[in-house]
Amino acid sequence: MAVNVKIPTPLRALTGDADTVAADAATLGELVGVLERGYPGMRERLCDETGSLRRFVNVYINGEDVRFLAGLDTALKSGDEVSIVPAVAGG
C-alpha cells in the first residue's frame, strides 16, 4: 500500500533532495522503518532514543496530527499523504 510522504527541507539531504517519496507501510511506525532503510538517518531525526516521535517533529496523515490519532500505531492506507513538519521555535 503506497503512501506519499512529504519531506521537509531540513530532511531532504537524506532523500537526495526529493520533497516527496513513496513508501509501502501498514502503520506509521512501519513507515519510519521503511524510510530508515531507504534513507539512513531518518529514524534518528523522527524518533527519540525510546522510539517515540520526537517532541519537535509533527507528523500528519491526511492533515490529522498523529498525536491525536494512534501515534506510531496509526494505520495507513494506499494513497494517504504523510507530512513531516518540524516544529518552529523562536523568541
Give a verbal description of the structure:
This protein is an alpha+beta fold. The protein has a single domain (2-86), classed as Ubiquitin-like (UB roll), CATH 3.10.20. The protein has 2 helices and 5 strands; from the N terminus they run ββααβββ. It has helices at residues 28-38, 42-46, and strands at residues 2-6, 20-24, 57-61, 64-65, 81-86. It has a 5-stranded mixed β-sheet, with helices on one face. Strand 3 and strand 4 (64-65) form a beta hairpin. The longest helix is centred in the middle third of the chain and has 11 residues, at 28-38. It is globular, with a radius of gyration of 12 Å. The model has no long low-confidence stretch (mean pLDDT 95).
